[in-house]
Write a structure and sequence with these properties.
The chain is built from 7 helices and no strands. With 177 residues, the protein is an all-alpha fold. This is ClbS/DfsB family four-helix bundle protein.
Length: 177
């Protein structure tokens, strides 16, 4: 067996986790996929989770575009610092409350494909070498891509498993009564 390169592993794990995420969502009957959990947490339904991922893809695409144009992008977003990430994530949540689940699915699938295409543009050396690009500062491009794809999808899978279980358990409760 030939060992996969870092780039191939990133693409493989990102696609695998992305598919797993949608398998969880699709395990819930379509008419029930919009149900929100009764929780104090920020993300209460599948749409919330998907739009969170979408917005982080959009931020990554902006960082990438600005960085590759020779600028140092403002990260994570204008008006926010890494120390205020909770506030940024809450603003993201608020911004997408009027989006439907179907719109969220379409947006996320398109942004996932765009990010995968960006990864494919690079060699392993370009992805893995720290400080290869000035805009990544002391890090490497790989860490930016992994954090916003495969690793973020693992977070989303866990969130969606809880949401799916909540919806499925709600179904069981109806038949117990």
């Amino acid at each position: 067996m030939i060992a996969k390169s870092d780039k191939e592993l990133l693409l493989h794990n990102s696609d695998k986790n992305f598919k797993s995420l949608f398998e969880i969502i699709e395990s819930v009957p379509s008419r029930k996929r919009g149900i929100s959990t009764e929780t104090g947490e920020r993300d209460k339904n599948f749409r919330d989770v998907l739009m969170h991922l979408y917005e982080w893809h959009a931020m990554l695409e902006r960082w990438y575009r600005e960085g590759m144009d020779g600028d140092i992008p403002f990260m994570p977003a204008p008006g926010y610092k890494w120390s205020t990430i909770k506030l940024l994530n809450m603003q993201i949540w608020e911004n997408y409350q009027d989006v439907t689940l179907n719109q969220a699915i379409k947006k996320l699938k398109l942004s996932h494909e765009r990010v995968m295409e960006l990864i494919k543009l690079h060699t392993d050396e370009e992805l893995i070498t720290k400080k290869y690009y000035k805009w990544t500062k002391t890090s490497n491009l790989y860490s930016y891509f992994a954090a916003n794809t495969s690793h973020h999808y693992i977070w989303a899978i866990k969130k969606c498993e809880v949401i799916a279980k909540y919806i499925q358990d709600g179904e069981k409760d109806k038949y117990v009564k």
